[in-house]
């Protein structure tokens, strides 16, 4: 809803007759938007193609629009990856009191509102949750964290037993731009539906996580793409028709006040253009036949559009699953490449260390003692001269010569 620095209780549009279901829808309108302006901007005031507001078509629905916190404390990134999460998480005690939250700060904001409305409407399966753009991500996060709020009620209490029996919400609606980008709420739902979710950590410790996943998996989901453009003053775009069709498909009672409320199970839902009354100059029967033919044509067109939308959603789901499989294969290949690179690096290090160790252990080779020069007796302390090693005296005479100076033998 509107950003509020001082959080207040949600903006509520009461049902026109009775109360069978509650729609909790997360808007994020600018700060300073007053209640009068909010009433004209909220989902319940939007019109389908036949010019009727959603509130008029679903008179037994209570519409709740929680306000978003302005400048809330930074969000815990383990639960929300988008900047939008800070508007719905980590509220102060004063915020919880002002918003009318029974469990205070011990449980998530939106999850508490879902459980409180479940008490009022008579069950979790009477509550429809949704959002638009980033608020759809926050709404889906709350759907996956209901167990945290349920655990806030003491085990022996009747409320605890009441919530223990709840396994599904009535429905979830995420409105997004018309493109092929996979949104976070879609991705989380696909993963939980196919693989049972990423939490739990093996076989143990996953009780609450598994219950959270079961609530998400059992809740009917509708992802509406595009249709944001307001067509005329009495038609707010195709996404409103899609939203109304989804409510009817999950058996939310519809019909104008003063008439018998019907459900999708009993009567097909149509959202056709208004048809003018009898044309002057024609019989009443012919006019009624023309009107019926026109309505049948509109019904057929609407059915064909729903069929095409389902086909697009199935193709989109197939692409998402293919992307998930491709990412898993790429991750395994990357891990294997990293393992091989680490092995080669370790082998190179070991070879280098072995080479260094071998070089350090090589001994110094010395000449044999027989090849070393001996010093003659009496010359041990004399300095070595060029002729000392050849036994020649200082005057250059050979000391080994047996002849005397005259050349005669002695």
TrEMBL record:
Residues 282-316 have a biased composition (Basic and acidic residues). Residues 72-91, 259-316, 369-410 are annotated as: Disordered. Signal peptide: none annotated. Residues 80-91 have a biased composition (Polar residues). InterPro entries: AB_hydrolase_fold (IPR029058). Residues 259-273 have a biased composition (Low complexity). Transmembrane segments: none annotated. Residues 392-410 have a biased composition (Acidic residues). This is Uncharacterized protein. It comes from Apiospora phragmitis.
């Amino acid at each position: 809803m509107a950003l509020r620095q001082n959080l207040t209780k949600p903006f509520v549009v009461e049902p026109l007759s009775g109360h069978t279901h509650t729609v909790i829808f997360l808007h994020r309108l600018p700060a300073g938007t007053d209640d009068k302006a909010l009433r004209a901007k909220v989902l319940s005031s939007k019109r389908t193609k036949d010019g009727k507001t959603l509130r008029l078509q679903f008179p037994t629905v209570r519409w709740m629009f929680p306000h978003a916190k302005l400048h809330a404390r930074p969000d815990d990134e383990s639960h929300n990856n988008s900047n939008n999460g800070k508007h719905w998480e980590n509220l102060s005690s004063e915020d919880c009191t002002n918003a009318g939250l029974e469990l205070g700060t011990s449980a998530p904001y939106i999850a508490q509102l879902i459980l409180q409305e479940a008490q009022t409407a008579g069950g979790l399966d009477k509550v429809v949750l949704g959002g638009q753009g980033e608020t759809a991500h926050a709404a889906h996060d709350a759907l996956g964290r209901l167990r945290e709020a349920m655990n806030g009620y003491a085990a022996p209490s009747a409320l605890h037993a009441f919530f223990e029996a709840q396994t599904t919400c009535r429905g979830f609606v995420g409105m997004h731009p018309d493109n092929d980008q996979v949104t976070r709420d879609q991705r989380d739902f696909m993963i939980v539906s196919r693989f049972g979710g990423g939490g739990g950590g093996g076989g143990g410790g996953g009780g609450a996580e598994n219950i959270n996943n079961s609530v998400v998996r059992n809740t009917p989901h509708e992802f509406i793409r595009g249709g944001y453009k307001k067509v005329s003053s009495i038609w707010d775009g195709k996404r409103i028709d899609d939203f109304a069709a989804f409510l009817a498909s999950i058996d939310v009672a519809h019909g104008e006040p003063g008439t018998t409320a019907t459900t999708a199970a009993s009567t097909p839902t149509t959202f056709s253009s208004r048809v003018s009354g009898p044309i002057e100059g024609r019989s009443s029967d012919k006019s009624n036949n023309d009107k019926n033919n026109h309505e049948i044509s509109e019904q057929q067109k609407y059915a064909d559009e729903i069929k095409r939308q389902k086909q697009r959603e199935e193709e989109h789901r197939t692409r998402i699953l293919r992307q998930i499989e491709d990412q898993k294969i790429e991750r395994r290949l990357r891990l294997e490449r990293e393992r091989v690179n680490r092995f080669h690096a370790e082998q190179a290090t070991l070879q280098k260390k072995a080479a260094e160790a071998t070089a350090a252990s090589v001994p110094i080779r010395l000449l044999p003692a027989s090849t070393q020069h001996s010093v003659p007796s009496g010359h041990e302390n004399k300095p070595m001269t060029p002729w000392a090693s050849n036994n020649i005296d200082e005057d250059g005479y050979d000391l080994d010569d047996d002849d005397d100076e005259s050349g005669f033998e002695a």
